[in-house]
Structure prediction request, 427 residues.
Amino acid sequence: MPVQTIASTASVELGPAAALSCRECGERFDLGPIFACTSCFGPLEIAYELPQGDPEELRRRIEAGPESIWRYAPLLPVPADVAGKPNLNPGFTKLVKADNLARELGVTGELFVKDDSGNPTHSFKDRVVAIAVEAARAFGFTTLSCSSTGNLAGAVGAAAARAGLRSCVFIPHDLEQGKVVMAAVYGGELVGIEGNYDAVNRFCSELIGDPLGEGWGFVNVNLRPYYAEGSKTLAYEICEQLGWRLPDQIVIPIASGSQLTKIDKGLQELIALGLVEDRPYKIFGAQAEGCSPVSAAFKAGHDVVRPVKPDTIAKSLAIGNPADGPYVLDIARRTGGAVEDVTDEQIVDAIKLLARTEGIFAETAGGVTVGVTRKLIEAGVLDPSLTTVVLNTGDGLKTLDAVAPTTGPTATIRPSLDAFRDAGLAL
Ligand SMILES: *Cc1c(COP(=O)(O)O)cnc(C)c1O
Ligand SMILES: [Zn+2]
Prediction:
């Protein structure tokens, strides 16, 4: 595995982050821009020295913090003064009590939508990128980069612009126009690769190992252990917004599976810190049928995930070889949850259902979670009498193509009262 060290990492100041540790063999490494264990090639993650002491005091400190992910800085691999640096201050998005949707789905308990379309570049990716930017600064990287299914490219472009870093991001050449424009508008380099996401990702891994990639921080490759921790903030926010309470069930989309695994890590930390009561919760993973390797493995009872070639309108989730797939399977099974998938048609229906009931226009990934929620309730897998949180991780304006063919004006008329009457629109 290539190991890059730009700055000396001995003096790296990233708050409570103490070391990197291997998720497979537990070996520990100094904080640095590395992502795989040198002994067993397992993925590395951050090991913390989390705050000790009175949970009440920590809760008060968090509540007094900024209305962004930085209120949780004591639990993240970032310097203590992070909120004062130029960044996009993502997070603290709305947790919407979705009573209308609950009625439609036959949910008798409380149903919430965690709406991450409210982030600065309109997807959950701003959370993970904000953490990666701090790591890039700490390690002295001058170019911020990524392989992206779309949303990440925009989030990296915007965050780099604000932080004063150069950016050069890589996307599959055939993405939705909304995502291409959003990735390009912040002024960094945007490179379309002739191939799917998995090909883009392989290319980036090669570039990291080559002198051509020197000084480059790839947020989801060599900075991945830091980047991934940003997803914990979804768990923190959901619990805080529920009044420091765990939900009973959470439905989370799966691309690489990173977000799902780190939401579980975040919930476990809140329990360990005494910030929420230790009660069981179930985690459900959601995929599109056209890219459902984790769902297929879950249903077959397998521990390994067999890669697939994606073919779905849910392009932000179209990772055919999900790095965290096996960990997702562990979590779904350990918590008593499940992994399920829905067709493209069900995704479109679910986008419209959420829009019609709650006034939330989700991107295709939100259609996947709402669609899977509906399917799991109908199958009796998800308990409709409990407190359930469904994630919407992106904005429908970025995936207009998904709904445009089946959405449009109710009528087109001449500007006259007669024409209006004839159209049958009056009460
Ligand atoms: C990236 C992304 C996800 C989750 O990705 P993971 O790789 O599983 O962490 C979910 N929704 C949207 C809209 C995304 O862009
Ligand atoms: Zn290892």
Observations:
- The longest strand covers residues 166-172.
